[in-house]
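testing teh design pipeline on a random one, pls ignore if ur not involved
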């Protein structure tokens, strides 16, 4: 289609893959079963490397190492400032390896190389530094007791943590989980998604170089129903932090409940609304809305997948949006001119195309896009459906692709009602110059993140997580420390009176 160019697929920058084994107790090791799995380049559908596959036996070994490191190792016992120093070194090492790390995420997940290099990987280092700054400032409080007792609380690390992450942000999510857990003195096992193990293993190597003691951070690639389930059901893991789909989040919570009742935090799916009011600058709003759905090829849980536009500017908005979508450049994510790479894998690619078919069948108007691009790799055109009704599948389900459901509204009340008509509650965008409108809507939307006159305004300082079936618990901000801590009350009589 006009405006969309396919850049030539380039293999030029593919780095040599150095780490393909499980990282347990400070060493790269084969899996107990000897099994391996393929990781695929979504630009071409070709195999990049074979990776050791963790199953239950390997998870047991990793948990044993993490347990020993927690119960007897130096990490939870050293002063926070000493942990911070190692975390700062870790951040420096990441910065020294930005290009290689960015290239690994590009070939493994189809992410834009330029975005990883200038944005995501530097932000990962910033996240580590942010939590390093918190490592020596975690403390309990003195309690005002109602009797002649002296009471205070201790904030203790929760223990051995299991992190399970998806494939859309292999680097950011690794450090969203690992950094606060390291800061408070936990030890951990992280399972990257089976689609994107490469950067996680590189980060494991850098952790060792930085001086993180053996057993503190174990990285175990493998599949969800085997390795993932072994983590969520493990009797010796003290907490699980999960990011992924709502369906799997439910399984993780069930497994945690059925095993040792470990607390879980779940950052799950979304179907986030962007609400654009008549007073908005139409061109800016159309740009924001497009980026809201095509950023990271729509593979982001906070994608602005439902766009509601007030009737006064609707026609002009629609026209601009379609023009912009047609000019959006999809192609090889290494090409600096390209704005959107391939979907992460074949499963995701097929799922998105099937939702597009549903949209057409259920009678939504396809304004632009709707087709795959090229005959190699998993590229999909930016796709915009208009006149989408609230009960259509494309308005309800998280598609996780560059597919927008656009519709019109008249009043602010109608917009709020429609925006909240979802089982999810992750994020929302509001575009207006009217502060009353912005305040009213931001307080009326049941979602964990509200962006006013911006979208994807990520900042490690801001807690990130969902309402409703988008989960609970927060990554980022000082809030994230809480899920890796537990509170202990210590009480003693003030006078030597008997109790
Ligand atoms: P997506 O649908 O976006 O691939 P998933 O929720 O399936 O996301 O996957 C997110 C993470 O959860 C991945 O690391 C995956 O391997 C893991 N996972 C999948 N199924 C399970 C399960 N039953 N138990 C634990 N983890 C799982």
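output:
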């Amino acid at each position: 289609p006009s405006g969309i160019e396919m850049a030539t697929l380039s293999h030029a920058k593919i780095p040599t893959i150095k780490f393909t084994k499980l990282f347990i107790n400070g060493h790269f090791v084969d899996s107990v079963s000897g099994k391996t799995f393929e990781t695929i380049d979504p630009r071409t559908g070709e195999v990049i490397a074979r990776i050791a596959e963790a199953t239950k036996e390997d998870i047991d070994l990793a948990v044993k190492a993490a347990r020993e490191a927690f119960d007897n190792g130096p990490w939870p016992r050293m002063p926070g400032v000493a942990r911070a120093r190692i975390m700062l070194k870790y951040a420096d090492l990441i910065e020294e390896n930005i290009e290689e790390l960015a290239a690994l995420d590009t070939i493994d997940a189809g992410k834009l190389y330029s975005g990883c290099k200038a944005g995501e990987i530097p932000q990962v280092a910033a996240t580590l530094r942010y939590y390093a700054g918190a490592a020596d400032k975690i403390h309990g409080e003195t309690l005002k007791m109602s009797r002649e007792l002296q009471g205070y609380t201790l904030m203790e690390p929760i223990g051995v943590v299991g992190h399970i992450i998806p494939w859309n942000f292999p680097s950011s999510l690794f450090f969203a989980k690992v950094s606060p857990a390291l800061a408070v003195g936990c030890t951990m096992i992280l399972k990257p998604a089976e689609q994107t193990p490469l950067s996680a293993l590189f980060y494991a190597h850098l952790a060792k170089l930085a001086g993180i003691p053996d057993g503190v951070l174990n990285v175990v690639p493998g599949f969800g129903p085997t390795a993932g389930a072994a983590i969520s059901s493990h009797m010796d893991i003290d907490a699980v932090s999960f990011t992924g789909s709502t369906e799997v989040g439910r399984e993780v919570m069930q497994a945690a409940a059925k095993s040792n009742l470990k607390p879980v935090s779940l950052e799950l799916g979304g179907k986030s609304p962007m609400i654009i009011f008549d007073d908005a600058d139409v061109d800016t709003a159309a740009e924001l809305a497009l980026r809201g759905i095509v950023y990271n090829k729509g593979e982001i849980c906070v994608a602005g997948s439902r766009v509601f536009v007030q009737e006064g500017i609707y026609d002009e908005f629609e026209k601009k949006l379609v023009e912009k979508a047609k000019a959006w450049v999809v192609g090889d994510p290494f090409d600096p001119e390209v704005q959107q790479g391939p979907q992460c894998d074949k499963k995701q690619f097929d799922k998105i195309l099937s939702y597009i078919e549903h949209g057409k069948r259920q009678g939504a108007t396809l304004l632009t896009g709707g087709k795959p691009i090229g005959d190699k790799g998993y590229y999909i055109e930016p796709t915009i459906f208009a006149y989408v009704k609230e009960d259509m599948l494309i308005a309800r389900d998280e598609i996780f692709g560059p597919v927008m459901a656009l519709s019109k509204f008249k009043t602010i009340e109608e917009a709020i009602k429609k925006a909240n008509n979802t089982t999810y509650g992750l994020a929302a965008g509001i575009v207006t110059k009217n502060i009353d409108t912005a305040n009213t809507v931001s307080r009326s939307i049941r979602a964990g993140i509200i962006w006013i006159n911006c979208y994807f305004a990520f900042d490690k300082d801001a807690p990130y997580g969902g309402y409703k079936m988008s989960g609970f618990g927060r990554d980022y901000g000082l809030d994230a420390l809480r899920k890796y801590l537990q509170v202990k009350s210590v009480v003693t009589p003030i006078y030597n009176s008997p109790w």
